[in-house]
Write a structure and sequence with these properties.
This protein has about 260 residues and is α+β, with helices and mostly antiparallel strands. The longest helix is centred in the middle third of the chain and has 19 residues.
Length: about 260
């Protein structure tokens, strides 16, 4: 499906000329969506532009600047994903954010710490619990206050306004996340706890394991291999536990 929009912005253009090479074997990366919805249920929406990702079929990039084949070497068009979580976790704490693994194929351009691709489809969706979003918002407001030397009164006003905006934003509950996973045919989980802005060693290792297993077992899962599905599910559950361990500091998490 082609939606006629660019997923990313035009920053970080890759030098070169001509068309990007075709990638027959999908690469797997991390990205963030916004949670949207239509008459058929919850929907993944690109954050840079308002473009819903279709369920059960590939998302295909198109360039608003007129590139005949997106992504192009000398443009910023394409569907974006990154190799690691550290670029995405700050966005993941926003209300309505959905973090996930995505498969990329077709024309693929390697960029700084990630890729831009012609085709993509989600493999995993993780949504922060509302309490985790609120904790992250409080933490970010405190940091902003220190940086900008806000008065206590100004900080209170800012907190009230942002919390009001948070309450009016999409905040997925368990039913919404389940419906999202069912619609796209992928594992979908709520993640609790005070989410870190930078992944610690355990989170980083488990995120890498998820990405590796997502790529390694993709073909087998598509063919219905139950063992490959269980391996991926276990890797995802380990990552969810690592991300959510701050919800219960007394719960041990092994590396």
């Amino acid at each position: 499906m082609t939606d006629g929009v660019t997923d990313g912005v035009t920053d970080g253009v890759t030098d070169g000329v001509g068309e990007a090479p075709d990638t027959a074997v999908p690469v797997v990366g991390w990205r963030v969506w916004r949670l949207g919805g239509d008459r058929t249920g919850p929907e993944l929406v690109s954050p840079a532009v308002t473009a819903g990702w279709p369920a059960r079929t590939a998302m295909t990039a198109a360039c608003r600047r007129g590139c005949p084949s997106a992504p192009a070497w000398d443009c910023g068009c394409g569907l974006y994903a990154t190799t690691t979580l550290d670029l995405l976790l700050p966005s993941f704490t926003d209300a309505g954010a959905v973090l996930g693994c995505v498969a990329l194929w077709g024309r693929v351009v390697e960029a700084d710490r990630g890729w831009r691709a012609e085709h993509a489809y989600p493999l995993l969706a993780l949504a922060p619990r509302p309490d985790a979003v609120a904790q992250a918002l409080e933490r970010s407001l405190t940091e902003q206050a220190l940086e900008r030397y806000l008065s206590r009164g100004a900080l209170r006003v800012q907190r009230v306004r942002l919390l009001a905006r948070l309450r009016s934003s999409a905040r997925p509950d368990a039913d919404v996340v389940h419906a999202l996973g069912t619609r796209y045919g992928v594992p979908a989980h709520l993640v609790g706890g005070a989410l870190p802005s930078v992944p610690d060693a355990v989170v980083a290792r488990r995120a890498e394991a998820v990405r590796d297993e997502a790529a390694r077992g993709l073909a087998a899962r598509r063919l219905g291999d139950a063992h490959a599905r269980r391996r991926f599910d276990r890797a995802v559950e380990d990552l969810v536990a690592a991300l959510g361990r701050r919800a219960d500091p007394g719960s041990p998490i092994s590396a």
